[in-house]
Amino acid sequence: MNSTHTTVQRRALPALAMACLLAASGWQSAWADAAPKVKFATSEGDFVVEVYPDKAPKTVENFLQYVKDKHYDGTIFHRVISNFMVQGGGFDAKYAEKPGRPPVRHEGQEALAKGGDKNTVGTLAMARTNDPHSATAQFFINVKDNDFLNPTPIPPGDPVPRFEYQGQVYENTPRAKLANAPQLFGYTVFGKVVSGMDIVNKIKSVPTGAGGPFPSDVPKTAVLIKSVSLIK
After folding, report:
1. Which residues are CB-neighbours of 183 under 8 A, at least 6 positions away?
2. Is 129 helix (H, G, I), strand (E, B) or coil?
């Protein structure tokens, strides 16, 4: 979406501390194993993503409901930019937009605060309009590290004592004012590709041009999402 190095003397952990650490590691591993996985079967091949309800619960719930409703079956990747991202989930093969449910609240900043991923290669994020809270069904997969899409964390405090963004400095600004600034929201990352990234790379490399209502970035041969299914 700098680290300070200090010298720390390594010590052997007492038995109880070691047991707690192993238990915590086991819990983290179990949580990772519990992350829902979704398979995309496309005309270019299959890939699998996992999603993180612990980081972006409403976003994941929204996405999985579309999966369960078979909303994505028969849609296309309608926007493909080889050095940016591939986007789909909203249009069928005739470029008819599929109706969606009400939009979901933006969770990008909260997800980052919980240790979620930034918009790096292979991550799955929600597409939206200029309104941060407008995401419905469309998603995109980052095919490069897109730092400029990351949400901007807001420092603690209300008012926020000092906050700098793109060269502009805010002093003693009410938190609500910053929290509602659209340019700070970025895009909510809620999952990542865990297998089949080679297929995503095939999709990003297809020839593109004008198509349907879009003047550019549309695959000349449709990349069809045959089905999307929850596999775990």
Report:
1. 152, 165, 166
2. coil
Q: Would the pTM of this model clear 0.70, i.e. be above it?
A: yes
Q: Is residue 102's pLDDT more than 60?
A: yes
For 133, residues 6+ apart whose C-beta sits below 8 A from its C-beta are 103, 104, 105, 106
Q: Specify the CATH superfamily of domain 35-150+187-230.
A: Cyclophilin-like (2.40.100.10)
First to last CA, the chain: 27
How far is residue 167 from each of residues 113, 130, 164, 170, 176, measured CA to CA in Å?
A: 23, 21, 6, 10, 20
Q: Mapping DSSP to helix (H, G, I), strand (E, B) and coil, where does residue 22 land?
A: helix
For residues 115, 144, 89 and 80, what is the CA-based torsion angle, rounded to 10 degrees?
170
Domain boundaries, the chain: 35-150+187-230, 152-185
Tell me how far apart the alpha carbons of residues 220 and 205 are, in angstroms, rounded to a whole number: 11
